[in-house]
Amino acid sequence: MFSFTKSISATALVVAALSSLAANVVAWHDVAVAELQCKDFCGTFTFSEGSLSKGKYQTLINVKVDRSNPAEHYMWHIHDNPVAAGDQTCECNSVGGHFNPTKIPEGTKCDPSCAVDTCHMGDLAGVYGNITGGSYTGKFEGKKLNLYTPTKLAQAGTSIVVHDCNGKKVCCGTINLVKDVKGNPVLRGSSTKKN
Predict the structure, then answer these.
(1) What sections of 35-141 are H helices per DSSP?
(2) Is 4-192 a domain of CATH 3.40.50.300?
(3) pLDDT tens digits, 156-185
(4) CA-CA distance, 64 to 14, in Å (whole number)?
(5) In this structure, are residues 16 and 139 in contact, taking their beta carbons and an 8 Å threshold?
(6) Tens-digit pLDDT profile for residues 49-71
(7) Closest Cα partner for 138 from 30, 18, 48?
(8) How far is residue 69's CA from residue 171's CA, in Å, rounded to a whole number?
(9) Can you say how many angstroms the Cα of residue 137 is from the centroid of all Cα atoms in its chain?
(10) What residue spans define the domains of the chain?
(11) Cβ distance 57 to 47 under 8 Å?
(12) Neighbours of 103 (CB within 10 A)
């Protein structure tokens, strides 16, 4: 079950912790969260967007995994669709393919040094590396991502999907805006549980 209070508290900590990564950010706003709570994986993915002084934006990604298989290395991606309410098989079949609004051709090898040209926008493992098993915390600058235009990450109804090393979907959760520009709560997140 999604804990709205827990996510807002976690979001406040994320914004404070990541401020050192983005000293040139004038103001933080727009927070989106995906809560993943499954039998073998439990974590929170938070996206915070900051306004830069020259009218540009920066998105910061915080990953906090509380429980996962310590022997596993997980791939993580943003997928095109939210987790459907009727996705009772817990196989995350409703999430579609990788989020790829810039239409990078399928099969293009993701090279993090030139991610804008070679990586699907949703290929977070390709750009930032896999999530290691057990408890895990990671902080990343999402240079290609933004919560609104042109990529519309949160508004597009996307999801986070975690895969095992063989590519099998382990857990997924819809990315939802939880705060608006003024810091007001707007939506609650959702997750798919595997039993």
Answers:
(1) 115-118, 124-128
(2) no
(3) 688 999 999 999 999 999 998 886 655 666
(4) 10
(5) no
(6) 876 666 677 788 999 999 899 99
(7) 18
(8) 12
(9) 13
(10) 4-192
(11) no
(12) 8
